[in-house]
Amino acid sequence: MKKVSFAHMGYSYLGFKQLVEDMGFEAVVPASPSPATLDRGVTYAPEYACIPFKMVLGTYLEVLERGAEMIITSGGVGPCRAGLYGMMHERILRNLGFNLEIFIFDPPLTGLWPFFIKLRRVLKAAGLSWLAFVDVVRRAWAKLKLLDELEQLATSIRPYELKRGETTRTFRSCLKIIDQARSQKEIAAAREECRQLLQNIPRDAGRRPLKVGIVGEIYVLLEPFMNLEIEKTLGEMGVVTHRSIYLTQYTATDVLAHGAQDVRQLAHPYLNQFVGGHGQNSVGETILYARNGFDGVIQLAPFTCIPEIVAKSILPRVSRDLGIPILSLTIDEQTGRAGVETRLEAFVDLLRQRREQMEARSNAALLPGY
Amino acid sequence: MALHIGFPTALIYYSHFPFWLAFFNRLGIEIVTSPLTTKAILDDGAREAVADACIPIKLYHGHVLTLKDKVEAIFIPRMVRTNKRATFCPKFLGLPDMVRATLAHLPPIIDLQVDAGRGLWGFWPTCRGLAELLGFSLRLAWSAYREGRHHQDAYQKLLLAGYLPLQAMAKLRGETVEAPAREPGALNLAVLGYPYQVYDQYISLDLIGKLKKMGVNVWTMEMVHPARLYRLSSRLPKRLFWHFSNLVLGATYHYLQQGNMDGIIHVTAFGCGPDAMVDKIMELDIRKLSQGQLPFMSVSIDEQTGDAGITTRLEAFVDMLHQRRGNR
């Protein structure tokens, strides 16, 4: 059986594991990224490549050493560099002497025919019919959707938890339950079970958490190791976070269709051009969060990420115009946990004070007769 | 009184200025350029622009600042595509928005799109838009466009003949500029990189001038026809997304095929996104295609780079090349 692997991105590895296994391959599931993974990537990657490139390269090196023979990954349309990463990774790995098969799937919109041909080659290697494949994809998709749903649920519960860390622990046990579920029926049952588990976490409903939107580049947003578990950290500080990108929603709007048009439309007064990656989305989503009454926005960007640099230079203007505080965090291999936590604490303090001031002002306006 | 429009001496200045100068002049508009880069311009730009930006982008902000009180408008075209095969780097795509969001009290910015991805007409749609915006007739715009093309073609010819961009522009203005001389028997070095980085004497620390003083024949990507550069860049399994990056890679393959080069130098900006890819591909492919015989050096530049450091590296590289020749 051919050993197949893929990149690690957030919790999606459970969905891809199932996809690869159901196709009849042996899945080499990449371990959660660690500092050692990153070190390896950094050693062989170009210095100014962004941290997702380095991390994915490190992951590939690890799975290749564990015997992976084939890697399946995504391409892209540019002008963000990520669309060329498959090609670059392949060149670097071959130069290091690895003999691997790498399938880079560009979005079907850029060319249906090459997509189809590549897929046919993979299916041939798997010995799978198209009909069987459709069923396999449906199940993997259901699992990916469930993972996204539960992650959102956990994020919304965490700021209310009575016992610190309980949501995260429960979520981890949910991951195990989801991993066991294979058929549509089992996945549906796992959904009910996990929702129950999360809903049953003892909570203090009287809290009034701050609301913070998180925008930025997809990989650092989705991979908790990369963003130093920002959602967990903020949640345990008593902040409800809303992340702008989830994998299944992203796939539906940006990979299989022409992008989240309305968000990009919103960005137009400030950035009137698609600049690749999520640059324009970051601006549009910030405006959306401001309009929806969020207390603040955090932008996560890998160091040297070109589209996010464009967004970063425009966001201060959006912040001034719409009166919403924005914190930009740039992440690279030097980024330390303590530094990020300090900055997050300071930002949350600022947001709290701001809310108190605003409430004091509006109360004064409410009580003119006294 | 004629309208004054500012044109920063940075980024596309080195590749497209002759076209725009001739175009605007024909319309009776005075083009005001910023002075060549100085320490003050770079410092101003670096202070205002976002810290993560690359040095050419910071520098551009500095050049806009020197112009802002002298002109009625600043021309910052949004460079999207000049052909259907590649776009510009995202920072070019967002440039007018970045400048507008970052710098205060600017005159109006003319940020019409240059997107020649669909048609064969190049800059014409942009020129038509400019004429509508500024209130000129289409007929006048067309003749201005023709004149721009004419000047740009003359400029291209001079570049292909070996003139460096600033010399070629001086020659177009009617100044007497000596034809570029090549020493037979001297070292041949290809200096490759984005024109706004290689030819800006201040930020490149006059790398080309230094090499010439060392008696080296310098070859750059502008000395090869762009069509050939594009053709060669398609050797990659997937062509790069960015216009200038493809030209640099095409030039790498061109000079590799030429076979008479003693070495290749890649000039890149600290933190340049596309160059993280370009530099690695150059390193791997030069080694592979020349069987490890052609020396390659990558020089990365930012606002902290010191003159002495660059000089030492260039001297060491050139010394090494001389020794290799002696050994052969």
Describe the structure.
The complex is a heterodimer of chains A (370) and B (328). Chain A folds into three domains: 126 residues, Rossmann fold, CATH 3.40.50; 77 residues; 162 residues, 3-Layer(aba) Sandwich (Rossmann fold), CATH 3.40.50. Helix content of chain A is 56%, strand content 11%. Chain A contains 15 helices and eight strands. In chain A, the strands form two sheets. Chain A has a four-stranded parallel beta sheet, sandwiched between helices. In chain A, helix 1 links the parallel strand 1 and strand 2. The radius of gyration of chain A is 22 Å and the shape is globular. In chain A, 46% of the residues are buried. The model of chain A has no long low-confidence stretch (mean pLDDT 90). Chain B has 328 residues and is an alpha/beta fold. Chain B has two domains: 158 residues, Rossmann fold (3-Layer(aba) Sandwich), CATH 3.40.50; 146 residues, 3-Layer(aba) Sandwich (Rossmann fold). Chain B contains 14 helices and ten strands. In chain B, helix 2 crosses helix 3. The mean pLDDT of chain B is 92. Chain A: This is DUF2229 domain-containing protein. Chain A: It comes from Neomoorella glycerini. Chain A: Pfam families: HGD-D.
Please give the structural blueprint.
The complex is a heterodimer of chains A (370) and B (328).
Chain A: E1 3-5, H1 13-22, E2 26-27, H2 35-44, H3 51-65, E3 70-74, H4 85-95, E4 101-105, H5 112-126, H6 130-157, H7 166-180, H8 184-199, E5 210-216, H9 218-222, H10 230-236, E6 239-243, H11 247-255, H12 261-267, H13 279-291, E7 296-302, H14 306-322, E8 326-331, H15 337-366
Helix pairs in contact in A: 1-6, 2-3, 6-7, 6-8, 7-8, 12-13, 13-14
Chain B: E1 4-7, H1 13-26, E2 30-33, H2 39-48, H3 55-67, E3 73-75, E4 78-81, H4 90-93, H5 95-102, E5 109-110, E6 113-115, H6 124-134, H7 138-160, H8 165-172, E7 188-193, H9 195-198, H10 207-213, E8 217-219, H11 226-233, H12 243-258, E9 263-269, H13 273-289, E10 296-301, H14 307-327
Parallel strand pairs in B: 1-2, 1-3, 3-5, 4-6, 7-8, 7-9, 9-10
